[in-house]
Amino acid sequence: MIRLGVVGHGQRIASVINICLRAVEPDVRVVAIVDPDEAGARSRLDERDRKEVVFCKNLPEMVRRGKLDALAIGTRCNLHAPYAIEAAKYDLPLYLEKPVAINMKQAIALERAFEKSKCQAVVSFPLRVSPLCMRMRRHIEEGAVGRADHVMAFNYVPYGTAYWDMGYRNFEITQGLFLQKATHDLDYLAYLMGSPIVRVAAMATWGKVFGGRERAGLTCAECRKAERCLESPANRKRNGSGGLLTDHPCTFGVECGSPETGTNEDSSSALIEFAGGAHGVYTQVFFSRRDAAARGAVVSGYHGTVSFDWYKNEMKYVRHHEPFTDTIKAGEGLSHFGGDAELAHDFIGIIRGKAKSRTTVAMGVQSVYTCLAAKESAETGKFVKVRLVGQK
Questions:
Q1: 261: burial class by Cβ within 10 Å (0-12, 13-18, 19+)?
Q2: Among residues 247, 289, 49, 41, which one has the least CA distance to residue 159?
Q3: Phi-psi category of 58—alpha, beta or left, where left has phi over 0 and alpha has psi -120 to 50?
Q4: Nearest-CA neighbor of 29 among 8, 10, 51, 62?
Q5: CA distance 341 to 333
Q6: Which is the most buried residue in 132, 195, 258, 316, by most CB within 10 A?
Q7: What is the pLDDT of residue 330?
Q8: Segments of the chain with pLDDT less than 50
Q9: Residues 326 and 307 sit within 8 Å (Cβ to Cβ)
Q10: Would you state the pLDDT for residue 337?
Q11: Which of 270, 353, 314, 300 shows the shortest CA–CA distance to 130?
Q12: What pairs with residue 315 in β-bridges?
């Protein structure tokens, strides 16, 4: 049996444990939890965990009482770094949700905490290890494009309302959607190009679509405009536009924040430069719906172009100087396009002493440094250099 302790037993980490980890090792047991919402945490437990689990006030108590084999951190984003820094003191495998930090102070402290730590961590970066992304990287390494000189990446999010009608709209916790969302994408782009991002110029649009002046605390059930509002549960159902189909907080309310006080962006884009000399562009859009969903990248060199889209589940390889084009299809219905399963195998392998992490804390911190540079650039209108892990 693998004895797992969890800090912040929310919906995401419960899904990782119950669906992904147990698909690899059914004998995983959640034996100890640190979570102020005990009732909510208990409701997300699998039946086999409910008898033995103990609730603890802090991480040291949980490690002591739980006799743990491993740790998982699934708190709100602003608490990822503080708990991970504390976890670095223990020689226990760690599953850490992204983003690993939400500001520069947290990121630097986290990097330093793990410089000499024996704690092996798997950061929740499933896109990097998804089968399509790994296959594309292999094509690039084998010379499919020659030297990779340019990349264009895109994320048209069909469930973007989650960042305005759920807890993700709390800007103090998310610090915007470069950190909350693009942390995945900027990480896998560095992996694809085989080089870290060193300079960023970014732009963002705030408050043009979501957010607004509706009163605090307003939900659809109380709103006089619900019948004609496209974000009401009834209209989302009628239009098949997705999102929460039950009563939810207003996506046009003052609680979403504002460009002046801080709010998630409706869309944002970045021009990125890699240490190896290549450059590219990345863009993310959060008001897309239905079949507009798209997420992937196009990498080009003199000899060819390779591209993939996770929503289409396919990769295309175009030879520039031969009359041949290949298309590869991937499996359907995989969590995070198959990456979550890969991370689960890594984590169980580390616990068993048979594997090493492919998504380390250093990678998580490097992504945060890149996202913070993009956020700063969007706010100031200037090119911003990206701090690199190991830089003093």
A1: exposed
A2: 289
A3: beta
A4: 51
A5: 12
A6: 132
A7: 84
A8: none
A9: no
A10: 85
A11: 314
A12: 308, 328
Closest CA to 184 of 153, 148, 149: 153
- The encoded tokens of residue 306 equal 């390779």
Residue pair 186/196 in contact (Cβ under 8 Å)? The answer is no
Phi, psi dihedrals of residue 156, rounded to the nearest 5°:
-95, 100
Q: Kindly state the tokens that stand for 382.
A: 């200037």
In order, the DSSP letters of 1-68 are -EEEEEES--HHHHHIIIIIIHHH-TTEEEEEEE-S-HHHHHHTS-GGGTTT-EE-SSHHHHHHHHT-
pLDDT of residue 360: 98
- Would you call 291 exposed, middle or buried from its count of C-beta atoms within 10 A (0-12, 13-18, 19+)? exposed
The helix or strand, by DSSP H or E, that contains position 337, with its residue range, turns out to be none
pLDDT for the residue 334: 65
Domains of the chain in start order, with CATH, are 2-123 (3.40.50.720), 131-210+261-385 (3.30.360.10), 220-249 (no CATH)
Q: Which residues, in sequence order, are CB contacts of 62 under 8 Å at separation 6+?
A: 5, 7, 32, 33, 34, 56, 68
* CA dist., res. 251 & res. 257, Å (int): 10
Residues 26 and 298: their CA atoms lie apart, in Å, by 38
Name the phi and psi angles at 372, rounded to 5.
-65, -35
DSSP type of residue 137 = H
Q: Which of 332, 193, 188 is nearest to 274 (CA)?
A: 193
Residue 86 amino acid letter: E
> Which of 168, 82, 84 lies closest to 123 in space, CA to CA?
84
In 64-174, the DSSP E strands lie at 70-73, 94-96, 121-123, 150-156
First to last CA, the chain: 42
Tokens found for residue 250: 């207003």
